[in-house]
Design a protein that fits this description.
Length: about 425
Amino acid sequence: MRNILVVEDSPLVLKILESMFRQQADLQPLFCASMAEAQVLLETSAALFFAAIVDLNLPDAENGEIVDLVLQYQLPCIVLTGSYNEQRREEMLLKGVVDYVQKENQYSYDYAFRLLHRLERNRSIKILVAEDSQATRHLIRNVLRSHLYQIHEAEDGEQALRILQEQPDFDLLITDHSMPGLSGFALTKLLRQKLQRHDLSIVGLSADSKGSLSAQFIKHGADDFLRKPFCPEELTCRVTSTLERREMLKALQRSAQIDSLTNLYNRRAFYEQAGQLLQAAERSQRPVSVAMLDLDLFKQINDNYGHASGDAALIGFAGLLQQAFGQTLIGRLGGEEFALLSPLPAPQLSAQLDQLRGQCAAVAYAPNAPSLSFSAGVYQGHGEELGTLLHQADLRLYQAKRQGRGRCCLNLEAPADASAIA
């Protein structure tokens, strides 16, 4: 829960904001109608607030003094105003407010709340600014820090490249084109040889008036381009839109890899990840174990208690797997079938699965339903392909079902016949 200081004297605007805050479970507003009230709250409880939304013209602060007060306590400040003044807007943005929002329509208030949620996400975002001009770095740093980004700086392309190699968790690079040594354009081309857009977003900068420069930057891997000199508002808009595109790209990538019901890897992603792990195990001459798991009599759960209960059983079981095998590759291969790839010896993996079986009774998937149960086949291999490993584990899974379900099988005692086994 984030506490938001709201300083506003208009009854109509307060009514709108109160209504919108009721729809935000993670935001708790504290309302003040004057600068004097806000000052008392900040003097006693400033550390409790995450951000502030303030009216620029208050009865006891008609010239925007409330902004200076809020910034004094280093709170992100979103300005609401009933009138637009270009000079005042630039003045507020240079002071370091998050944004200057005119009270025009519902979209204006929606935008202010989007900013609040964006601020929360921004706290974990790392931005590297590669720029040889100290003045420009200072401007970018001050503007973006008001949005709670983590800002790091490099004086040239070589330093930026070293930082990115040492700290690969940056989300965005803002790079000038003309720098001594490695230019921003050359830096972009180098980075795109190894890093995709979902790994690192890049925004190019230049004071060059040639229109072709922006096209060259983007063709060679930049996500956007900004021409200097730029206003603070344009910088924040470009950065925000670039990061939001990156988040959408990562969300699409995740949706292609993650099973939407259980939050485990889907079949395709499991095979991809398993292939990489098997290559690493072969290089280091390490054996691996594979387990195939199947919920027992799952069709009867769907038939007798409904598909919603079946989904609840799958979700609950997947949660148990994640808790018990957090560092193990886990996938839902389809239906009620799951797979694990582990560096543990097969007997140890089988023993852990047996321990997990006792926890299945706690999965409440339907009223008066029998305890959830699963069967498993476990196989340990060395240097074998994934298909072979899964097939061997699958044979042992069917043997576990033939022997009465609710157990793990490590060794094949007879040729497994999969026919007529549910």
